[in-house]
Amino acid sequence: MFKQPLRLSPHFSQRPWGGTKLQTLLRKQFPPSGGPYGESWELSDHPDGPSRVLSHHPELSGKAFGEILRAHPRPMIGRDSAPARYPLLVKYIDAAEDLSIQVHPSDQWCRAQRHDDRGKSECWYVMQAEPRTTIIAGYKPGISESAVRAAIARNSLRETLQEWSLQTGDFIPLPPGTVHAMMAGTLVCEIQQSSNTTFRLHDWDRKPTRQLHIDESLQVTDWDRDARVALRQFGSIGSAGESSTFENEFFSITRCDVVPGGVLSAPLPHHTGAIINVVEGSGELLGEGWTEQLRLGDTLYLPAALTSPTTLRAGVSGLRILRTISREL
């Protein structure tokens, strides 16, 4: 039952800035009540929103991803035992309105403060950006903590921040300590450490009011990072072509492109398991004795026990997937 991909069913997270694209573009089935839903936690072992596995096998279907992981660590991640929490969390995010200006802590800060969650290094693949959409990332050169506090006092924090234009297909790493904000009109696939810790500096005077975390935000900010780094982080994952890769200490992401109607032999399985996200187009993933349909917004987990060769076949509009592996397993 672990010799083929496991299709994942997300946890939906209510957010005041959420829209309808998860439902209309990615064909997610929202709960009958609640909302607006801004995030679908596609692969999640976090206690705030575990995702579930969809499988034809009755022993797996409907169970939480983490429950299956810890019951079957060898076929899932190639280890004799599983961690208390799978180290990564993958989301789709629909920003119909501006997100808060925020910053995430590092693992080191969380350990030092005995915080009950881990740090958060994240990255975004921009699946759709409406015209004139921007992103806030990093402070302007020369901005100090005292200058930020003064700007907050006069409600002009945005003047201290760098803002960049955004395009579909951009890839944006955001290390811990980087102040940032996703702006209205953005749909992304977010790959991150399994953390739900966000410190807000400003929330656009949104009603109802959400808690701000001024002191914590400034405490975890990496003030030594060159503000120009944010600019260098923009653009595609790598050069154009069939595949390219981004890595940090927590995860490795490979982008695979298949031309319309094309076929690509892609070594997608990994000895610790792999996550597949369909971020453009549609097609099929083929293996030994099985075929999985791939639609925009799908998320699959390839267990470690899946070792047979895999092939991607694109539909008429082509196909782009992200394949992510944890570097902590």
CATH architecture of the largest domain: Sandwich
Strand-pairing-aware structural class: mainly beta
**Which value, in Å, is the CA radius of gyration?**
20 Å
Helical content (DSSP H or I, runs of 4+): 10-25%
Mean pLDDT: 94
Any low-confidence stretches, pLDDT <50, length ≥5?
none
Instruction: Please report the number of helical segments.
Output: 7
Q: Let me know the CATH homologous superfamily of the largest domain.
A: Jelly Rolls
Strand content bin: 35-45%
What global shape is seen? globular
Brief write-up:
The chain is mostly beta strands and 329 residues long. Helix content is 13%, strand content 37%. Strand 17 and strand 18 form a beta hairpin.
What do you see in this structure?
There is one protein chain. The chain has 329 residues and is mainly β. The protein has 2 domains: 6-232, Jelly Rolls (Sandwich); 243-326, Sandwich (Jelly Rolls). It is 13% helix and 37% strand. The protein contains 7 helices and 20 strands. It has helices at residues 21-24, 65-71, 73-77, 107-112, 145-153, 214-220, 229-232, and strands at residues 6-9, 11-14, 37-43, 52-54, 88-95, 101-103, 122-129, 134-139, 161-165, 171-174, 180-182, 186-193, 199-202, 243-247, 251-258, 263-265, 274-287, 290-294, 299-302, 311-326.
